[in-house]
Amino acid sequence: MNRARDAAQRIESLREEINYHNRQYYVFDDPKISDAAYDRLLRELTQLESAYPQLVTPDSPTQRVGDKPLEGFDEVVHRLPMLSLDNAFDEAEMGEFERRIRDRLKLDGDEAIRYLAEPKLDGLAVNLRYEQGKLVQAATRGDGSRGEDVTSNVRTIKAIPLSLQGDDWPGILEVRGEVFMPHAGFEALNRRARKTGEKGFVNPRNAAAGSLRQLDPRLTAKRPLSFYAYGLGEVVPAPIAEQQSASIRRLQQWGLPISPLHDVVTGVDGCIDYFQRIVQQRDELAYDIDGVVFKVDELELQQQLGFVSRAPRWAIAYKFPAQEETTQVEAIEFQVGRTGAITPVARLAPVFVGGVTVSNATLHNMDEVMRKDVRPGDRVIVRRAGDVIPEVVSVVAEKRQAGARRVSLPTACPVCGSDIIKPEGEAVARCSGGLYCPAQRKQALKHFASRKAMDIEGLGDKLVDQLVEQELVDTPADLFDLTLAQLSALERMAEKSAQNLLQALEKSRSTTLERFLFALGIREVGEATAQSLANQFTSLDAIEEADEESLQETPDVGPIVAAHIHTFFRQPHNREVIGQLLAAGIHWPAVEREPVEDRPLSGKTVVITGTLSMPRDEIKQILQGLGAKVTGSVSKKTDYLLAGDAAGSKLAKAEKLDIAILDEAALQDLLRQNQ
Ligand code: 9MJ
């Protein structure tokens, strides 16, 4: 008897603890324990509940694993319609939105309107019904009046509380929000799908929709879905607050996650300012958003404004330019990169996507062309997100014309005719022509001249193309033999520009060892590796002569990279070009660094995120000066995350992995201590 009582107590406290950690993770974005420790708690609870099945309750955290499969979804009639949002696509349309509101409310000139602002998630809208604090029903939006009952599936989403926190919630509370799939989960899901030969999902939105409309909740339980609340349906007794902002904050107190990026802004200027801020952060967010939503904050004013057809007059979605569009593939061609990698590229009927006109999209490699089965003439979905290269997402299969033929990998390089080699098990095919291939030569020269390499200002892509095509330049060393007469004779090259270029070449002669190493374009030797090599060996001679074993003593240089470096320096041609470059006067100061171990961040890997007071490149140099290796993404190997303002997914990941977070003040302290 006593034992049962102890079990009941322990079960209760485990549930509280698990729910607390769920809230810390999903609602406050501030996890307090590791995934492993969380799993241990859940396991203990599961074991106790199976020993005492009479103590299982529907809102226990163990009850999220998924019920039995359904035959189909029941229909749910929404007690209050689920509205959609009007859109604005530019500042003028935002201005009109505010004008309409002011006119309708008969506001005079100086009364400012306050708006709740939040990112617009690209997921699936749901209505969650809590009765007496317990989740009793979850429904999709459907047509706004009727949706589908997806309660069993929604119960598996850990971000959604099965019972509300506290005791001051209304007896009936309908919460509206968006179910979405964060990028990391989406990528993992697609990786798994590919491994088992399944198709995977086109984008996180489709993955979220597919997961929620899955008839077997046990499968939904395995899908990494999340949720943010942004509104209310039926509430009895109402109201719970006077402002939209206060309502969602109350939802947060009751354990529902809301967007941490929400804010209250004033007037259309405040809206535009907020929009710009979110645009800046967009690429760093852990999930897709397709715009920003503004809602008149005073609920009293919302009442007065009401709604037209299916959209409230008091809200608007200021949308980003579409990131996905459909267009036609006119041809599939093969490009040759710096290291000879052959990349299939889709030539497209021009289409406006992600804010620019796109007429080429990468297909990455032949495996990808086969997997997506893209053929000339197909209609395809093209995606351009942020600064990323546009890519073909998928083919619109229904629109394929009869007779559309697959392309195959050419056997000879389209530029130089050398054999194309695709090693067994590798996705990438390469032209075997090396620097004999003009395409590789051009790319090698472009890389050599680029900002982070030799930084030869004015030596752009078009100019390199001309120089190679007119056979004025074969190797990087030839650049330094160019004369004013040769340059001035080129197309679109005034004498002044020619002089400027010669000056830029002159300036670039004085460089650093790490830039020079990076500029050589050795496979797999990026900026960070070049820096490590320079630190480790301090002279070019030492690197040239190093065997693979000693190369591998360099931080982050493994056997593959070591082999690439070693092979590079064994090629007589490469040694010759290096000799010519040095003869042309390229030089750098002696690398005299303190022994690696002595600097404050020696051996430490640092990732930078968020907005800082200096350009990233400068901060990177400072960190490297302190001995750190600076990398792009957070992993278990990261020692510190330097987080500026509005840090997003990297910060969340670092916190999850228990990685030490530095702010800019901490960096300044380190610098002061080491002056
Ligand atoms: C999204 N999708 O993030 C609304 N939404 O409000 C936000 N959608 C909405 N609000 C009223 N943040 C209807 C839809």
Automatic annotation (TrEMBL):
Enzyme Commission number(s) of this protein: 6.5.1.2
An example Gene Ontology molecular-function term: metal ion binding
Question: Entry's HAMAP family?
Answer: DNA_ligase_A
| Keywords in alphabetical order | DNA damage, DNA repair, DNA replication, Ligase, Magnesium, Manganese, Metal-binding, NAD, Zinc
BRCT domain ranges (all copies): 596-675
Is Secreted included in the keywords of this UniProt record? no
Group of enzyme by EC: ligase
Q: Which GO terms describe its cellular component?
A: cytosol
In its UniProt entry, the species of origin is given as Candidatus Thiodiazotropha taylori
Q: Which InterPro entries match?
A: BRCT_dom, BRCT_dom_sf, DisA/LigA_HHH, DNA_ligase, DNA_ligase_AS, DNA_ligase_CS, DNAligase_adenylation, DNAligase_N
* Cofactor(s) required for function per UniProt: Mg(2+); Mn(2+)
Protein name per Swiss-Prot or TrEMBL: DNA ligase
Annotated NCBIfam families? dnlj (TIGR00575), PRK07956.1 (NF005932)
Give the UniProt family note.
Belongs to the NAD-dependent DNA ligase family. LigA subfamily.
